[in-house]
Automatic annotation (TrEMBL):
InterPro entries: RutC-like_sf, YjgF/YER057c/UK114. Signal peptide: none annotated. This is Endoribonuclease, L-PSP family. It comes from Nitratidesulfovibrio vulgaris (strain ATCC 29579 / DSM 644 / CCUG 34227 / NCIMB 8303 / VKM B-1760 / Hildenborough) (Desulfovibrio vulgaris). It comes from the Bacteria.
Length: 132
C-alpha cells in the first residue's frame, strides 16, 4: 500500500542508514498528525511475558491494533522511537519489523535505557503517524 501523505526521501551528504529506517520522512500539508503512547509487550489480558522477543511480538501486535483503531496502518507511520533495557536481537527484531513495515521504513530512533515504567517491561515502542 502506498501512502500519498507520507514520503520517505533519500538523503545526501550523510552516512547510509545503519538499519531499516529512512533518514527523512516527509508529511504533506493538511495531514492529520497522530501521536501515540509508547506500546509495551503486554498481551490483551495485560500479562507481560518474561521473554524479550515475545515482548517484541506483543508490542507490534499492540501497535497494529492501535493504528487500526483510528483507521491507520503501517504505511501511515512516520516515526518510530524504541527504548530497550536489553540488547536487541536485531536478527529477530528486523524479521518482525520488516513483516510489519514491508520494504519502506519510517524514521527511527533507538535508545538503550536502564529502566522503563515497570521492572517487567523490557522494550517500549512509540510511533507517530499521519493520515487524512
Amino acid at each position: 500500500m502506498k501512502n500519498a501523505i507520507v514520503t520517505r526521501m533519500p538523503s545526501n551528504g550523510i552516512s547510509k542508514a545503519v538499519g531499516n529506517y529512512s533518514h527523512i520522512t516527509k508529511v504533506e500539508p493538511n495531514a492529520t498528525l497522530y501521536t501515540f503512547s509508547g506500546q509495551i509487550g503486554a498481551d490483551l489480558d495485560g500479562n507481560i511475558p518474561e521473554d524479550f522477543n515475545h515482548q517484541v511480538i506483543n508490542t507490534f501486535k499492540n501497535i497494529s491494533n492501535l493504528l487500526k483503531s483510528v483507521g491507520l496502518g503501517a504505511d501511515d507511520v512516520i516515526k518510530v522511537n524504541i527504548w530497550s533495557t536489553e540488547e536487541i536481537d536485531w536478527e529477530f527484531f528486523d524479521e518482525i519489523y520488516i513483516e510489519f513495515f514491508g520494504d519502506v521504513h519510517p524514521s527511527m530512533t533507538v535508545a538503550y535505557v536502564s529502566a522503563l515504567g515497570l521492572d517487567t517491561i523490557k522494550i517500549e515502542i512509540e510511533v507517530w503517524a499521519a493520515g487524512h
